[in-house]
Amino acid sequence: MAEEVKLFGKWTSPFSRRIEVALKLKGVEYEFFEEDTFNKSPALLNYNPVHKKIPVLVHNGKPIAESLVIMEYIDETWKHNPILPIDPFEKAMARFWAKFIDDKFWAIWPAVKKAMTSGGEKEREEGIEEAQLHLDTLETQLKEKKFFGGERLGFVEISASLIIWIVVSQEVMGVEILTQEKFPALHELTQKFVHDDVFKQCVPPWEPLVAYFKAQYWGAVAASK
Amino acid sequence: MAGNGDGVTLLGYWASPYALRVKWALKIKEVQYEYMEEHLPDKSPMLLQYNPVHKKIPVLVHKGKPLAESLVIIEYIDEVWKHNPLLPQDPYHRAKARFWAKFADEKCVPAMFRAFSKVGEEQAQAAEELRENLKTLESALEGKQYFGGETIGFLDIAVGWIGCWARMNEEVAGVNMIDAEMIPLLSVWFQKFLELPIIKECLPPQDKLLEHTKEFHKMLMMATLT
Asked: Of A41, A163, B52, B218, whose CB neighbour count within 10 A is largest?
């Protein structure tokens, strides 16, 4: 039976990008459906009625939502080029760290968004401070544990790519959040996602991505005046 | 010293539902283990050593290697001890089980905690959110006896504790959490699940848990007043 793989996502979303990376690593052909957050397609609402969010993978008509759940599904369905470690303990550690990164991101990103879209100077400062508090936790763990081997693009590495979106927001706002001085380990990691040929695929085209968020940011700044 | 040789040690707390669901997994798999009670809020040096990231129970130590995060631990147990499988074999059904466990942890549990710890309008809203999210969770049963089908599985042990805690929480906080009319199938499933001998025998003593819940609630209410 021919495989039918559809991905409902957004090119600007790190969670959507993760799934594309996983599918590409497995050499799986898929059809991509770009979703508009403010105008969600009937298909998306049908395939993810609980959360109504991207990404959603639809494999032979069966929908799967939640990016880490989707990544595990991909790894279990297409068994070559494993994304997760084979050893149960190493696998558990990978799951632990991916969850940790996601949980931290969900603390950091609202702070960054607040800084990016509130339009006000004070809110921007507050947002940046809050974001740095959480980045500190990530930095400590990365420095001490080196939470991944770093050479191969695996489950944790793919998940960690969302750190790039923090770097994007810096460029958008013209401020420093993730500085080399304050966060040397995280900074080194971001460089890998920008420069390494393999890790690069985790990040959408840089200029268009920055332009997209710049439009949102300057729109908000203008609106606040 | 915990975790010597091939041994399994579980660091837990008697009133923790997260430690409880790991106990259930170990019980179903018939794994012999050493249980070590943490006397929270004090944290033992062992706990801090084994879970430096979160400093929380449960922690499973197997062959000297520690693991934290209860659902991560349960999946590990399922992979190491392969009999009486918790997760289904098929990747799509595994994905569904993981999806719903995440939903319960992220949507039902925080709402339950807010309904328990808040007052007035905030409490009412949280309780409504909880009831609605439980209704959504009910749809995952899909007319089966248990989430796992004919027998209990991963999702049953991931979310089953909510039935016990919610009943206690709603009594103490004075707000409806389990609406049997709204979630008739889930209510029946909660009851059936919690009555299973293998599940029931791991539950904390109910009178002790009720006292504990009352004390916790009192503490939270005092904190909101100051």
From this structure: A163
Which of B68, B96, B103 is closest, CB to CB, to A96?
B68
pLDDT band (50, 70, 90) for residue B3: very low
In chain B, residues with a C-beta closer than 8 Å to the C-beta of A97 are none
Interface check for B94 against chain A (CB to CB < 8 A): the answer is yes
Q: Alpha-carbon distance B17 to B198, whole Å? A: 15
The verdict on B56 touching A (C-beta cutoff 8 Å) is no
Spatial distance between the Cα atoms of A120 and A223, rounded to a whole number of angstroms: 10
* B68 in reach of chain A (CB within 8 A): yes
**Can you tell me whether residue A41 is helix, strand or coil?**
coil
Q: Could you report the per-residue pLDDT of A166-204, keeping only the tens digit for each?
A: 999 889 888 889 999 999 999 999 999 999 988 999 999
A111 touches A127 (CB < 8 A): yes
Render B165-221 in DSSP notation, one character per residue.
HHHHHHHHHTS----TTT-HHHHHHHHHHHHSHHHHTTSPPHHHHHHHHHHHHHHHH
Q: Report the complex ipTM.
A: 0.94
Model confidence band, residue A148 (pLDDT cutoffs 50, 70, 90): low
Kindly list the residues from chain A whose CB atom is less than 8 angstroms away from the CB atom of residue B51. none
Q: Helix (H, G, I), strand (E, B), or coil: what is residue B146? A: strand
Residue A96 pLDDT more than 50? yes
Contacts of A88 in chain B (CB under 8 A): 76, 79-80
Q: Say whether pTM exceeds 0.90.
A: yes
Element (H, E) at B24: helix B17-28
The number of CA neighbours under 13 Å toward the Cβ of B222 is 6
What is residue A19's three-state secondary structure? helix
> Encoding tokens for residue B98?
């993981």
DSSP reduced 3-state for A64: strand
Task: Tell if the CB–CB gap between B72 and A95 is shorter than 8 Å.
Answer: yes
CA–CA gap between residue A94 and residue A84 (Å, rounded):
7
pLDDT (tens digit, 9 = 90+) per residue, B108-126?
999 999 999 999 999 999 9
Least CB-CB distance to B136: which of A50, A72, A92?
Answer: A50
Identify which of A59, A64, A69 has the shortest CB distance to residue B102.
A69
* Contact B102/A at CB under 8 A: yes
Chain B: residue nearest A96 by CA? B72
Listed residue (A182, A111, A186, A193) closest to A146, CA to CA = A186
What pLDDT is stored for residue A150 in this prediction? 61
